[in-house]
């Protein structure tokens, strides 16, 4: 715990001494990705820093309410500004290669600060705050801001920051249903609501606003449901299915839960085709299978109960390959 506080204090002191920051996260944005990034973005703004939100990907439809009033830049947009001596803050990204900016932006940063909760993280930052027990990276950002308040009597959490962090918390805990939920998660939720988090807006946008096309795609996806040995469930989504239902690649990760939430199933798998020979695989488990270990077999990573990887092959072959590895663990 002492080490963790020291890491937080080092990051706070570095932020105080520095002026220019790029904040970013991993490819295929999710709630904790965007929530933690915007939590830091708004906080740095309030501290008088120059801060740029750079991400070479788009927010899913159900999370776009968070970025409505934020200028999100591409890597090329940022490079055109010719900013020198900037620092990069990478949030919720366990692998430097998955940080969603160009290699050039990563390499030219004076320092990289990594704030993350993935077990597969190898501490690639110059400054790291990594806690694999945390419910979400948003919880780590919250801890950092609470520590800042304790050190400097500077409570900067306002409605925007509270809303961003609450979104990250509820999405990464499955609205407090996953095993990553701890008593500290509920304490954080309580404090963020007191500080103005728009809970109703978050719940409605994230969990209660799927489009008609989403449900048409879901119906088609469920027709591919395959249960293997009663313990593994698998669903496949192809490019044709996405196009036929006018859905984008980043808007359908919620379908993964339909594989896990079946009686007696231990591991759920969603195969989502991105290109002809590129398939994103999302893995979820209930009780005992470490899906992060399985994902690492394919250079992926994540958490014990939720992880992912990319397999460069057809959907059919990707399914065979991932099932081979999953069945070894069942």
UniProtKB/TrEMBL annotation:
Domain of life: Bacteria
Listed transmembrane segments: none
DDH domain sequence ranges: 21-168
Coiled coil: none
Domain DHHA1 residues, every copy: 244-327
Gene3D superfamilies per the UniProt record, alphabetical: 3.10.310.30, inorganic pyrophosphatase (n-terminal core)
Name of the protein: Bifunctional oligoribonuclease/PAP phosphatase NrnA
């Amino acid at each position: 715990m002492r080490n963790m506080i020291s890491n937080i204090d080092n990051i706070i002191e570095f932020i105080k001494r520095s002026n220019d920051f790029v904040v970013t996260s991993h490819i295929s944005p999710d709630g904790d990705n965007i929530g933690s990034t915007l939590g830091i973005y708004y906080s740095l703004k309030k501290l008088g820093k120059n801060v740029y939100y750079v991400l070479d990907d788009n927010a899913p439809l159900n999370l776009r309410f968070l970025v409505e009033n934020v200028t999100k830049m591409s890597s090329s947009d940022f490079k055109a500004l010719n900013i020198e001596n900037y620092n990069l803050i990478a949030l919720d990204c366990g692998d430097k290669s998955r940080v969603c900016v160009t290699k050039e932006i990563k390499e030219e940063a004076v320092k990289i600060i990594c704030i993350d909760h993935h077990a597969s993280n190898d501490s690639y930052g110059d400054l790291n705050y990594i806690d694999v027990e945390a419910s979400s990276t948003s919880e780590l950002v919250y801890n950092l801001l609470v520590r800042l308040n304790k050190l400097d009597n500077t409570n900067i959490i306002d409605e925007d920051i509270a809303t961003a962090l609450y979104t990250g918390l509820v999405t990464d805990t499955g609205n407090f249903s996953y095993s990553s939920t701890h008593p500290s998660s509920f304490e954080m939720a309580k404090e963020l609501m007191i500080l103005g988090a728009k809970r109703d807006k978050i719940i409605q946008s994230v969990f209660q606003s799927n489009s008609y096309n989403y449900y048409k795609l879901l119906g088609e996806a469920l027709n591919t449901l395959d249960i293997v040995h009663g313990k593994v469930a698998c669903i496949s989504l192809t490019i044709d299915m996405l196009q036929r239902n006018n859905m984008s690649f980043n808007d359908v990760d919620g379908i993964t839960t339909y594989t896990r939430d079946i009686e007696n199933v231990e591991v759920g798998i969603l195969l989502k085709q991105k290109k002809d020979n590129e398939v994103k695989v999302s893995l979820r488990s209930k009780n005992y299978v470490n899906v992060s270990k399985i994902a690492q077999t394919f250079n992926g990573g994540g958490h014990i109960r939720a992880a992912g990887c990319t397999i460069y092959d057809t959907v059919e072959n990707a399914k065979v390959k991932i099932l081979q590895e999953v069945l070894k663990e069942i």
